[in-house]
Structures are given as C-alpha cells and as structure tokens.
Amino acid sequence: MDFSLTPELKSLQLEVRAFVAEHIIPLEKDARQTAHGPSEDLREELVGLARRAGLLTPHASVELGGRGWTHMQKAIAFEEAGYSTLGPTAMNIHAPDEGNIHLLEVVATPAQKERWLKPMVQGKIRSCFAMTEPAPGAGADPSMMQTTAVKDGDHYVINGDKWFITGADGASFAIIMAKMEDGTATMFLSDMNVPGIEHVRTMDAMDACFTGGHGVLKFTNLRVPASDVLGEVGKGFRYAQVRLAPARLTHCMRWLGQARRAHDIALNYARNRQAFGVQLGAHEGVSFMLADNEIDLHTARLHIWHTAWMLDQGERCNFESSRAKVACSEAEWRVVDRSVQILGGQGVTGETIVSRIFTDMRAFRIYDGPSEVHRFSMGKKMIAGREGH
Amino acid sequence: MDFSLTPELKSLQLEVRAFVAEHIIPLEKDARQTAHGPSEDLREELVGLARRAGLLTPHASVELGGRGWTHMQKAIAFEEAGYSTLGPTAMNIHAPDEGNIHLLEVVATPAQKERWLKPMVQGKIRSCFAMTEPAPGAGADPSMMQTTAVKDGDHYVINGDKWFITGADGASFAIIMAKMEDGTATMFLSDMNVPGIEHVRTMDAMDACFTGGHGVLKFTNLRVPASDVLGEVGKGFRYAQVRLAPARLTHCMRWLGQARRAHDIALNYARNRQAFGVQLGAHEGVSFMLADNEIDLHTARLHIWHTAWMLDQGERCNFESSRAKVACSEAEWRVVDRSVQILGGQGVTGETIVSRIFTDMRAFRIYDGPSEVHRFSMGKKMIAGREGH
Amino acid sequence: MDFSLTPELKSLQLEVRAFVAEHIIPLEKDARQTAHGPSEDLREELVGLARRAGLLTPHASVELGGRGWTHMQKAIAFEEAGYSTLGPTAMNIHAPDEGNIHLLEVVATPAQKERWLKPMVQGKIRSCFAMTEPAPGAGADPSMMQTTAVKDGDHYVINGDKWFITGADGASFAIIMAKMEDGTATMFLSDMNVPGIEHVRTMDAMDACFTGGHGVLKFTNLRVPASDVLGEVGKGFRYAQVRLAPARLTHCMRWLGQARRAHDIALNYARNRQAFGVQLGAHEGVSFMLADNEIDLHTARLHIWHTAWMLDQGERCNFESSRAKVACSEAEWRVVDRSVQILGGQGVTGETIVSRIFTDMRAFRIYDGPSEVHRFSMGKKMIAGREGH
Amino acid sequence: MDFSLTPELKSLQLEVRAFVAEHIIPLEKDARQTAHGPSEDLREELVGLARRAGLLTPHASVELGGRGWTHMQKAIAFEEAGYSTLGPTAMNIHAPDEGNIHLLEVVATPAQKERWLKPMVQGKIRSCFAMTEPAPGAGADPSMMQTTAVKDGDHYVINGDKWFITGADGASFAIIMAKMEDGTATMFLSDMNVPGIEHVRTMDAMDACFTGGHGVLKFTNLRVPASDVLGEVGKGFRYAQVRLAPARLTHCMRWLGQARRAHDIALNYARNRQAFGVQLGAHEGVSFMLADNEIDLHTARLHIWHTAWMLDQGERCNFESSRAKVACSEAEWRVVDRSVQILGGQGVTGETIVSRIFTDMRAFRIYDGPSEVHRFSMGKKMIAGREGH
C-alpha cells in the first residue's frame, strides 16, 4: 500500500496544472462559447495550445502520437485538466472522443486507425458515438435498441433515430450502434457527411461544455461497407462495455477538477466576504460546508485513484467503476451545489464560473448510466454474490 | 381545525388552473424568451391575457383594480399560476412587483400611489427593488449597506452601487434603499430614466424567468425630492421586513406550482417509458422518488397554507416565514432534482420544461435570504426563547 | 381553511399537558421499568393516575366509558401524552391496545365487546395482535401468512408461529390472524391462558416502551369457537386495513411528543452549556440543528393534523396515512438523532431520557410498515393514477 | 501509488479473520455481557484466546511483547478484529487501553512502563483516561477543564470531577488530566485503589462494548508523587493530541469491521427472505441500500488506509484524522442504520447482532470529538489556509 505520487506523477500534475493556469483559464470568458459548447474555432485554438505544450491527446499510445498514459496518470492529469471548463477540450480528452480513441485503439483495423483514429488523435477531427435513442429505443437500457443494420451484399444498411449524440454537430465521423437481425448489436464506423445521415437538430441542453453539443441524428438507408464494421459483427454490446468502464472513470476525473475549482472559488469568497460582523467563513454555517466539500473531494479522489489503479492491474472493473461513478458523481455534485450556496447570489450568475460548472455538471449524475442504474446493477451483483472482489 | 377548501377557494383554484392550462402553457415555447427573461413584448401579451381573464394583479386591493386576495387565496391561486413558468408574469404576481405592490399599498402616499402604484397594478409598467449591493455592501446581511443618502435642501442625494436588481432593465421606477448619516436606512422612489441612475449591465443569471433579468445599477448624485421618500425617513429596514415575510411566502407558492409541474411530467414519463423489460415506474428506484416527491410537495403545501393562514390572522410571521421558506425551498428543490433524474437525458435538455424549472429554481434557496441565514435567524430566536409561538 | 385550535382543543391540550407534567414525568425514573417495558405493576399505577384524571382510554366511545375523541382530538392529546415515555401507557392509548380497541368497537359483537373490550377500555386487561410471523411467514407482506385456521365443526383449529407480538407477555387475550383454506384470512379472538397457546419467549428488543415487550407465540391445535371469530370469516385482511390507517397515525402523534421532548431537552442544554468560549447554542453548528428540528417537528405536526382531519371527514386515508407515516417517522427520527448529537456524551447515556427515546424510536421506521413498503405502495398507486385525491 | 496488499498484509488479514471467526464470534452470545460491557471474567477468557493465538496487544512494540504493527497493519487487522463486537476486547486493542498503550510507549519513563505499561500490554490489567468532565467542565472543548493539580512539596494534589471515563470500573490505574495554576494541563498516572479516588457510579450508556462501562470519578485531595507525572508538566494538551489522532483512526478501523458485519448479515437476509412474491433483495428499495452500503464501506476503508499510510510516513495528521473521523463515523453509521432497516423487525431485536452494533455505534459520532467539532476545526484551518496538504 503506497499513496505517494511518484516523482513522475508529481511532475505530471504540476505540468498540467501550470498549462491550465497559464494558457486555458484566461480563455474561459472567450466569447466563442455558445449554449451548444465551444465553437469549432475556439476548439482549434485550444487544441493548438495543448499541442504546443505537448499535452494533446496524451492518453493515446506513443505510436499514435500520444503519451500512452496509464489510468493512474490519467487520474492525476485529467483532474488538473478539469480545473478549467475548457481544459479537457484543449487536451482532447473530453467525451466522446476520449473514449472513442480508447475504443478504436483496442478494436479498429490498421486501415480504420489510419483513416479515423490518427487525425482524431492529432486533434484535427472530432467524432461522435451514436448509441442513445429516443423512446421507445435504447436509453439507460441499451437492450432496447431500435436502430437496425441489415446485411445487403458486402454492405450493411442502417435505419433508425439517435439522440443525445454528444459532439454530433461538426463531427467528422460516427461510431454507430445498431441491432442485427439475430438480436445482437454491431458497431459501425461512418463519415458523417454521407447520404443516409441527417443531423436533424442540436438539442437545448443544460450543459455547454461539449463542442458540437448534443445532436439528433436520423439514419435512412445508410450504407456502410463491411470493411467499416468496428471489430466483429455482433459484439457491439461487449465493446460498449470495453469503452464504458474507463470512460466512466475519466468523467469522474475531469469533474473532480471542476468540483475542486468551484470549491476553491467558494473558499476564497468565504475568506474575503464579510457578513453579520465577521468574515463569512467564520460562520460555522459556511465553514461546515467547506469541511464537507473537503471530505467529498477527498472521497472522490480516493475512489478514482483506487479504480484507476485496478484498471492498470488489468481488471475489468465493471462493478468498481459503477461504484466509483455513483460515489464521485454524487460527491462532486454536492461540492458544487454547496459552493453555489456559499457564493450566494454570485453563485447563480456568471460573476464566477461556478454557475457554469453547476449547470454543466448536473447531467453527470445521468450520463454513462444514471446513479439508479448503477445501484441497480451493483445490487444485483451483490445479491448474486458476483461483485467480484 | 379545518383543511377544507371553501367553495370560493375551490372555484378560484379551478379558475386559475384553467386559465394557465388554456392560455399560458401554450406560450411556453414562445421564442420571445431570452436568457434574461421574457421580452417586454411577450410580457405585455401575457398580461393582456390575464387582464381579459380578470386575473391581472389579483392580490392588489379592489380599490386599485385588483381582487384583494387574502394570503390564503394567494396560496391557492399562486400555486396554480406557478404551474407554468410564465403564469406569474402573466398575472403580474411575480417578484419584485408582487412585493412592491404590497409595500406601496401599505406605505405609499396617495400621490405616490397615483403616480407609480396604479399603472403597476394595471400591468402597464414594471418596478425594481434596489437593495442588494456588491461586496463589501449589503448582501444577506442588509446592515452592511454602502449606498448613502444625504439631505440637501428638500432633496436627498443618493450615491452607491446595487446589483442583483431583479427586473431593472425596462423597469419604470425603483424603490431604493440607502443608508442615512445616522446609520438608519430609508426607502426612496425614483423613476429610472433620470440623471443619476445608470443601468450598467444585466447579469448572466442561471434563471431566466424574470422580465428584465437581474441588473447592475449605479447611482451618481441621484437627486430625489423629499416627497418621494417612501414612508418615513429612517424606517427602511422596518419596511423591508414588512415586504419580506409575505414576499418570501409568495415565492414558496409560485415555486410549489413549478415543482408540481416538474413532478407531473416525470410521473407521466415513468408511466409511459419502458426500461429493463418493464414500465420505468415499476422500478422502485423510480417509484420511491415519485413517492418522495409526493411527500415533499404535500409538506411544502402544508407549510404554505399554515403560514398564509397565520398572516391572515394578522401575525407578522417573521419566524414562521423563515421556517416555511427553508422547508419549501428545499423540499421543492428536491422534487425538481428528482424529476430531472427520473427523466434521465431528457431532464437535462429542453425536451421538457423541467430543465428550465431546474435552472430557474436553484436561486430560490438563496433569494430572499439563503437557507443558512434563515436557520441562523431561527436558531438565534429559539435559543433566546423568542420564536414567538 | 382554519388552523386555529378550537377552545375545546386548546383546553384538551392543556389538560393532557398538565397531567403528563405533574403525574407521569415524575415516574419516568421508576425502577419498575425493564428491558421489556414497564412492569404490569407500574402500568397499573399509571393507569390509575389517568383514571383519576379522567384521561383513561379517552379515544373509546362514551358508551364504553371513554371520551369518544375524534381523530383531531387524538392528534392534539396524543402528542401531549407522548411527551413522556410513560404517557401513552398511562392513558391506555399505546399500541397495540389503542388500535385493538378501535377495531373491536367497529367489528366485535356485543358479547365480544362485553367480554374483552369493556375491561380493556377500563385498563384492567391488556391484549395483543398476533399477525406477524417469522420467515418464511407474514412480515411486511401480510399475504405470506403461514398460520392456518381449519374449520372443525363449530370450532376453528389454529396452528402456526407468530413473533414480534407486542404486549404478548401478560396480555389477557389475543386477536389472531390466520389463513383459511381458500387463501383468505380471518381474525379470531382468544384468551391467552388456554391450551394451544404457548408464549415461547420475549424477544430482546431495542425499544422498552411497551408493557409485555414483544413476544413469540406458538399455536398448536388452538380451538376457537365460531362465536369468537372477529367480524366475518375471510375478511381478516380488510379489517387489518381498518385497524392500520388510524393506528399508523396515532403512532405518528405519540412519537411527535417524544421528539418534541428530546428537542426541548437539547434546546435547554444548548442554552446552558458553554463550549469554545461561548454558549453552545451560539454555535451555528448547533443552532442550525435546532432550526432543523423545529422545521421537522412542524412538518410532522402538519401531516398529522391534515390526515386526522381527513379521517374525521370519513376518508379511508390509505394513501394519506402512508404518506404521513413516512414523513413523520423520518422527520421525528431526525429530530431525536440531532438532539442526541447536540447533547454529546449525555445524549448517549441515561443522564437524560433522550437516549431512551432514541432507542425506543428506531423501530418506528419499521413498525406498521417500513418506510420502504409505504413508498412502494404509494409509488404503485401514483403510477396507476389511484392515489385518490 | 499502489493499492495492493503486500503478502504480509494479506496474511495478517487472513490470520485475524480466522481467529475472530473461529474463537471470538462463538462467544458473542455469552451471558457474561452486561449493560456495562463484558464482565472482567469474560474479558480474561477473550484475552487468553488472543494470547494463545499470538494476537494479544499486537500494536505494542516487540520489546514490550507486542508485534509492533504499523498504522497500515492496524488498518487491516483492526477492521478484522472489529468484525466481532468482542474482537477488540480480545486482542486488547480497544479504547481506552489501545490509545493509552500508545501514549505510554511514547511518553512514559522506564519505571512507569515497568509498573503500568507492561502488565497492560500483557492484558493483565486495564486502564482509564480521565479527561472529560461534567458541565461546566471539559467536554468537546478540553480548555474548559476544572480539575486542578496543585504542587505540594514533591507531590501534586488533585481535585475535581470526571465522567464518561471509559473502563473506569475495574481499571487498575488512570491517566488523569488536570489543570495547573498557570492554565496549562498536566497528565498524571495513579493507581485507582488509592485514597482520593472515588468511583461514584457507572453511567447507563447506550453502548455496551467497553469492559467497565463509562464511570463517574471524584478526586478529593488525591496525592500524586512528582515521579508519576506522565511526561513533562504543562504538556498535557500536547500529549492529548499525540494520543488523539491515531486513537481516532483506530476507532474508524474497528467500527468499519462492525459496519461490514451488519452489512453482511443484512445482505444474507436479503438473499434468503421473500417479500411480495420475490426475493427481498430483488426489490430495488432493498438492493439500492445494499449498493449504498458498499459505497460507504469502501469510502471508509479508503479514508482509513490513506490516513494510516500518512501516519506511517511520520505525518501528524491532525487535519486528516479529523477528516477521516467525520467521513468514517458517518459512513459507517449509515451502513448500520440501513442494515437495521433491511432486516426489518429483526433489525431492532436481539435476533441478530445488528441491533447491538447499532446501539453501540451511535456514540462514535460523538466520542473523540463530535462530527461538529471536527467540521469546526477543519473549517477554521481551511479558512486560515492551514489545512497543511
């Protein structure tokens, strides 16, 4: 048992912290941010900053041009990246690309990597992951998928509707989940600017941190050549799991940075504001909230570190990543909610970035499986004695 | 003890419910809503609808053209109005005008009423209440006020900065709180379009339900004639209390309607969506949240009814309105947060109005005294044995 | 809508409050209390005090010698009785007799009333209600009942095991629920000192407020004449509902008194103890807990009053009594838990009665349906649109 | 960063787990347990079992006959010991002896160690720590100490009252905190069976896990020779801190074992009990509680491991042990409360050991500093920027 950060991890932490403080935070008030996320133009500027700093797509393998970070390295660095709302976009470690890069590294063919993965790792293009569907389709329960893929010669023909497709607007290509005639699912790769894919609209979302927002897509007789199947036919649900456990955890990491940022701003406010004759932070009603923030931040960090370490040991961590996801998303949310409360009126306006973090973060208790679905899944495994540890 | 709604109250409830359902809810997607609230144009259309329905400014006295509603009548009707995000604007019962109308009825001179109150009751003009200040001024602790009023002949000269001034942009006049040389505070009435008042900017707020948003004002040698003092010189803090207790409670009423709306949408979704092979609502993880919503909604309603009844008995209800404000703002918030969670992805997008209610409502735990300030004040009174009941 | 206490209710409140303060609280340290509740001897002394004060079994009808209290009168008076841990025992309004008296008044034959109800109302004998069974029998789910009743001539022969039978030790008679051959259930009346009933043991329970504790019973070929069937054969589950809704609510009332007592002791302590240089209650960490206690006590009282009023209107209140039971049991528990915390070390010892209230009350979140069963039942009705109001 | 248990730690875990399962759990229903803890007789039997297993006082240094465990080894082993309510007593690692042994090892003179520490490490005698006082003396705020020590030749004369002195009844000696004339505090060692020490009574406490219960002591002109001062005169408060941080953490460890035990019993019940037609654990209302238990147990364990590791690095961990104490005591309490709820009626009776754990554990949120005092202290340090990490 050893909780020390190696010199390498410590140096990584300081490297990303400095990059974010010097280059990214100053851009947070940049006007090129919209209700549907940073503009493509702003994204390119951010990515350029990370590229120059040697911090672009660092989780990708060295072969691909990344730094081949372990999960533990990601735990340290992604928290620092998340300290700015724009940090993950700059470093190209945001959903959905972060997870898609991981998935393609594991599953894609050399040709597919050359065509789609490489430019994505270089920050030149973006992707989206087209799984979620409107009712009565696949939501928290992926088995309800309605989008179909039917073999037609050496092509597959895909029909269906998707929504909540993060980053769809402006994405160069999509990973599409569709149901086969035998009830299994398959993943397909497709450029977005092809006949058969319609970007119907961008949804009005509470969050505004993902470039391209959340889109609604319609597939009408989309023809995908068999060579563009991602991995093996029929293994879509299995790959989705491959993608999910680590992707869940990187969410926890980035949002931990956001929560820490909100807390730091609230702490600073409590130090400097006066109320009822004394420093605001001298009120226990405030200082107890700060203490609870500290407890929650530390709790989230410990869950992340532990699960990242397990993943680095080669464990699949289905149970553990559910546990970490619930613990972190709820602890981090409490931190941000308390920070808003400490800031009072300022907490609910753009005077600080905390209100932005608050509205961005609410969805985290829902994305990648609502807390309820994770509790459901954990409980089932525990009752069956299959929690696996 | 009698919890029955009199036939008159029952009929009032149905009247407002029908008005909101038929005339107001259809306008909720109207494009004339901005990040800073409904446009003035939309507000006028809404007010026109209420006028035609005989539901405009109904809490004002009959002499002034209102219906002279008791607090109990407000409890019933304002909940119904709040069922739409636009209902309170339509009926002219939203903050800050609702409270300002009440205050002017109690304190203003006949000339002041003729000039400012009457057109406000008729929905022709709007007002704002300029009390809150940026640090180091008056926030949750009004005694920290920095804005000064100095007597100069038969005028007062006002200097200072205000912010979070709801409805400032587009308001015809303001009620201004300023500190006198002897440490007391006075309320002044002033038109907004006069030299000495600058509307610096509108703040970016999480909520978007108040026409005119939340403004920053600067007073530079604003000259107010002595005849425009509201009430007596030096009694500003006392009047603020007169305004506050009932104003707090009407917030609870309107937001109860909003919370009920969010719950109804979530309940409907739980009835119709499938997940993991059964109806979503057949999952206890969901139905327990619905049961908790029901408990919280009923709790809020009982607190409101009880405090409204006490106000109708002539009690000042300083303690009781603090108690109701904490209980209701937190219960109603939990309802909306759970409704978002039940709706999943849809809860955090504009697919339903629930995400709008969520971001609008967060500030309610802060406006009119954060929960912490009310707990502080209640606790102090309890320790001193002055909770007064 | 009228929240005023009528002069009659106000006088009732003062009458019971004075009785408890003068006659019952002084006996709280009486050594005749055991881990299994007050001794029979102590109970008789207490009952004698209530008899002399005209406060014995006041909820029974006037014909039977009670005062025929409405649910609203009970709401006021039972809270006051509960202010002492011994109050409900003294006034003969404790579980299970309180509910059994109600049930027998509604369902029993004149002969049954003469034989069992009358002496119970007079406080001369006690009863028990034998429904709950050990696994795999009837617990929170009564339909799992294993105890059987088989017709044999003009008798029924009952076999089975029961446990958690409150008051069993020392009870004169039992109401026994048993399953018929057709799957319905029937209630039977039987003296306890008959062949076929064995009182196996008294369970070690966390609570110590019920005379006779909680017993384990074994029925072996217990023969009950058909004339001792309570009500109609096959209607056992229906009668259980008749008994349950009001019984649940009287639990809420009595425990509200207990919670208020704990709060008063904690408040008094916070006023008089010093910590870190100031009065304990001057710490917001303490005064906020007191404020939350006040909110929770008021919430519970409003739920009780509202549901009692509905019962007095003749409503069955299945849904409403579930709602009140969850709201009250959880709010009252929070009050007592916070009171323990404020009292610090003293809260967890016999220095005050609060630790007694704490251990007595924990079961209230389980008895008469755990919170989870009520949420389950409420949620089901809401999803089905049958919440009935 | 390395979360793996070394082979040595893994083997230690299994060693203690097996010892507790085979030798200690079978004694849990032993009748020699009283409302004031295990009898001295039972304690000696338990200690004998640990001695034979080589697990007696293992945290003491090897020189003294212990195994010289690090904090990390304690973290692993004490959790296992705590899995039985009697485990810590058997292994002589319970409060207050566990902390007193640590303190004496650090501070006592060779003669003092020979006389008091050695037999305590051998499990032959017990000690108590006499710090807490009745109002208006030292409670959560030790600076309020009223007990005085006055120099008289080569003796000190001690007068004062103490209470909540764990293990006082039957202790062979006491560590006594008293205030000096200059306002500092000093620790004294004294045998208990001497003139000047009166054991007034044992308090009725909710918990029943400490041999000797919690006593009230009176010191009347107790004469302590200067050679029995523990450490230096005037350094009492500093030594109390030396004792406190690790002592707090060992509480967290032992109670983690208790919480895990309660959870395991509830999980087993949920697997085997039926309700409403299905396995109890198939109800999400139950399985969600189990999932939350898992999250809380893991959270507590991570906090403990991290703080133990820091202590092993030589850090004082004042801030960190406060953080761990709040996080663990509240998380572990929630686990036990939920376990009671899942068990229903059985949870509140002696049918399982969970009700014992519940009543034993409540005080943990108060002992060694209530949660509020730790939040107070953490908040103060954070506001001052002195949280030290």
UniProtKB/TrEMBL annotation, chains A, B, C, D:
The keyword Oxidoreductase applies. Residues 128-204 form the Acyl-CoA oxidase/dehydrogenase middle domain. Coiled coil: none annotated. Residues 234-382 form the Acyl-CoA dehydrogenase/oxidase C-terminal domain. The keyword Cytoplasm does not apply. It comes from the Bacteria. It holds the Pfam family Acyl-CoA_dh_M. GO terms for biological process: fatty acid beta-oxidation using acyl-CoA dehydrogenase. This is Acyl-CoA dehydrogenase family protein. It comes from Limnobacter thiooxidans. The lineage of its organism: Bacteria, Pseudomonadati, Pseudomonadota, Betaproteobacteria, Burkholderiales.
